[in-house]
Every structure is written in C-alpha cells, then in structure tokens.
Design goal:
The protein has about 375 residues and is α+β, with helices and mostly antiparallel strands. It has two domains: about 5-175 and about 335-375, 3-Layer(aba) Sandwich (Aminopeptidase), CATH 3.40.630.30; about 180-315, Gcn5-related N-acetyltransferase (GNAT) (Aminopeptidase). It contains eleven helices and 15 strands. The protein has helices spanning about 20-30, 40-45, 90-100, 130-140, 160-165, 185-190, 195-205, 220-240, 245-255, 300-315, 350-375; strands at about 10-15, 55-60, 60-65, 70-75, 75-80, 105-110, 120-125, 150-155, 165-175, 210-215, 260-270, 270-280, 285-290, 320, 335-345. The strands form two sheets. It has an eleven-stranded mixed beta sheet with strand order 2-5-6-8-15-9-14-13-12-11-10, with helices on both faces. A four-stranded antiparallel beta sheet has the order 1-3-4-7, sandwiched between helices. Helix 2 (about 40-45) packs antiparallel against helix 9 and helix 7 packs across helix 10. The radius of gyration is 22 Å and the shape is globular.
C-alpha cells in the first residue's frame, strides 16, 4: 500500500493519563525517562496536583493503532496560567492580552512541574510522531486557543516540530557528565587543584555532625515522605508561594515507582533535617526537589549535587540533571547544556513578533553556553 492509499490518522483526546492502562501508555512512552511514565503522570492527576482546579486540565492526545490500542500518545494539558512550566512566557501572555486577545487557555505539551528534558512524542511507531504534532495543532484550531507549547523536548524532536512550522526556543541548564569515573575522587582528580580543594572543604563543612541516608524502593516509608513533605513545603513557600504537589503525590510516587526513587536525607542525631528527591532513569539521575528545616552551610550542594554524583557513579549512570537554573552548579562540576522547547502560534502577527524575539534569544543563549563552558572547574589542557 502506498502512503497515499493509507487511511488518514484519527487522533482523540483522552480523559487523563489515568484513563489508559499502564501497559497501554508505557508501550508508547518506553522506560528510559521516568517522568513520562504512566506511574508518574497518573500520580500527578490522582493526587490532585495536576487537575483542572490547579490550572492543569489533562488532555492527553492519542492515536490508536489497527489493534485498537494506543500507537502514539502525547502528554498535554489545557493551561489557565503559566506557572509550573519553567519556560517563561508571561511576557507573551501580557502582550497578547494587551492586544485584546485571550492567551489562556493554552495547550501545554509537557510534564507538569518538571523542567526535565524528555520525549513528548511518545509512539510505538516513530512514523506517527508528526501525526501527534498535527493533532495538537488541530486542538488549538478547533478550540480557538492562542497557542501550543511543547517544553523540554529532546534534541531529536526539535527537527520534527521545526518541520511542522513551530518556533524553536533555547534555554540552558547545568548537567554533570560521568566520564567513566570509578569514584568521587576520580571525578575530583579531573578538576583544577584549587577547585578540588574547595569542594572537599564544602563537603566536610556540610557533613559535620550529620549522617546521610540514601533510601529507595521498598525501604521508603510514609515516615520518610512525612519528613520530606515538610522540607518540600518550606522550599515551595519560599520560592513560589504555594507548593505545586500535594502530600498524596509522594505516597503514590513511592507506591508506584519506588524503585526509581532515590531520597537522600541528612540527619542530625537520627532525625532528618534536610532531603533531596531524585528519580532514576536508564541513563541519568534526575534531581527534582530539595528542602531543609535547619540552615547548614553548603548542605544544599552536598545533598543535591555531590551526593547525586556519588549515586550516579555507583549506578553507572551517564549524567546527573539537577534541575532548572543555578549558575552555582558550574563550580561543582556541572556544565552548561542547551534545552529546547517548541511553540505553535497561529496568529501571523503575534508569530512574527515572537519569532524575532526567539532568534535573538537563541543567539544570546548560545553565546552564554559557550562563555560558561570556559568557566568549568576542570583542568585545562
């Protein structure tokens, strides 16, 4: 059968990721990235974290195969605000609304509250990926939405969105790369002497009087989550006013994917005073949340960056992705890397204005990454 003889693809909007069985969704999502798994996304929905009331109405898009099972899926949401995305478009929203338009709701193709690069075009057959993009455009068109945004897409999806006419936006994060290190000391040996000494001094100061525990899998208990919830609430209240995730989300995370969770706790006299939550992928350790109820110099660096490096080396993982922002990661061996998002803006005038902005922004980001790359603590030459 020629391509022209094939029946047109039919896409549908499902009633949340939880409306799929884990086997159906994960057959498309694969196992490499834990954040696009059925367990993670359905836990966000069922815990009340990603819901219409929270401004995240789940609208996953699916293309069913000849067997009736989903052959391709896309995690998508109708958003009534721009919070919890980490790719900031508030200025775009202000401009559109000053011109008399309604920027919200918009279509967000993403993992809620998660600035982690990962696939957004989840397909058993890669040939269906462009069909998911076309389906997202149809949702925007049929519901008269202002725009669609696919955030933290992997580099290999950028050409697919670009070919469909979406605008590409660049940003940067800081990741640690495992160059085959056998231990943390092996990593330190790759650094300039002064940087190596500074890190050793930081670690000693952070750990004075404390013990560190790594907890995963069946060892995770509700007591661990109770402690971490206090840490998370404290950080959330200081950074964005109200934590995005509910307490129940953490329980569901432990129940459904505890083997992919690494909770790193700092304890004083046996009581947890700080913690960092990580998820374990097939190639990377992903740092997500941190918090503390006691101020300890350098403890944030120890739990979130150095302990994560230790854990990645022990597991043979290729890198540590320690979340958004954070130029302070540079001195700790985390190097700048580009991140990508794609944006569908139907209005021609608005699209032209955003395109001009993004062209200048991409150039600035590229120059920033190049300049920061010269400032890493590794020995030169």
């Amino acid at each position: 059968m020629s391509a022209d003889d094939r029946a047109p693809l039919v896409a549908r909007i499902a009633d949340g990721v939880a409306s799929f069985t884990p086997a159906q969704w994960d057959a498309c999502a694969g196992t490499a990235n834990p954040f696009v798994s059925h367990a993670f996304l359905s836990a966000l929905e069922e815990s009340g974290s990603a819901t219409p009331r929270a401004g995240w109405q789940p609208l996953p898009i699916a293309i069913d195969g000849p067997d009736g099972a989903p052959a391709a899926v896309m995690p998508a949401y109708a958003k009534s605000h721009s919070q919890g995305e980490y790719v900031f478009d508030h200025a775009w929203a202000d401009a559109w609304e000053r011109a008399g338009g309604d920027y919200y709701p918009k279509l967000q193709i993403a993992v809620p509250f998660t600035p982690v690069t990962g696939p957004r075009l989840l397909a058993r057959d890669p040939a269906l990926a462009p069909g998911l993009i076309a389906a997202a455009e149809a949702v925007v068109r049929e519901h008269r939405l202002s725009s669609a945004h696919a955030t933290f897409i992997p580099a290999d999806e950028v050409p697919l969105f670009e070919a469909a006419g979406w605008l590409i936006r660049a940003d940067r994060q800081f990741h640690w790369t495992n160059e085959g290190y056998g231990s943390f000391d092996d990593f330190l040996s790759a650094l300039a002497s002064r940087k190596r000494k500074a890190i050793r001094k930081e670690r000693a100061a952070a750990l004075e009087g404390l013990t560190v525990e790594h907890v995963s899998g069946a060892d995770l208990t509700e007591a661990h989550w109770d402690a971490f919830w206090h840490f998370y609430q404290d950080t959330g209240a200081r950074k964005w006013g109200r934590p995005y995730l509910t307490r129940r989300f953490f329980s569901l995370l432990g129940e459904r994917m505890g083997g992919r969770v690494l909770l790193i706790l700092a304890k004083r006299d046996g009581a947890p005073i700080a913690g960092a939550l990580n998820l374990i992928g097939e190639e990377a350790l992903y740092g997500r949340y941190w918090g503390a109820v006691e101020e300890v110099p350098f403890l944030h660096f120890e739990l979130c960056y150095y302990q994560a490096i230790d854990a990645a080396i022990a597991r043979g993982l290729a890198r540590v992705e320690a979340g958004a922002q954070g130029g302070h990661k540079l001195a700790r061996g985390y190097a700048p890397v580009a991140t990508w998002s794609a944006h569908h803006i139907p209005d021609p005038g608005f699209r032209r204005a955003v395109a001009r902005y993004l062209e200048a922004e991409r150039q600035a980001i590229a120059e920033d990454i190049e300049a920061l790359g010269e400032l890493t603590p590794f020995r030169k030459g």
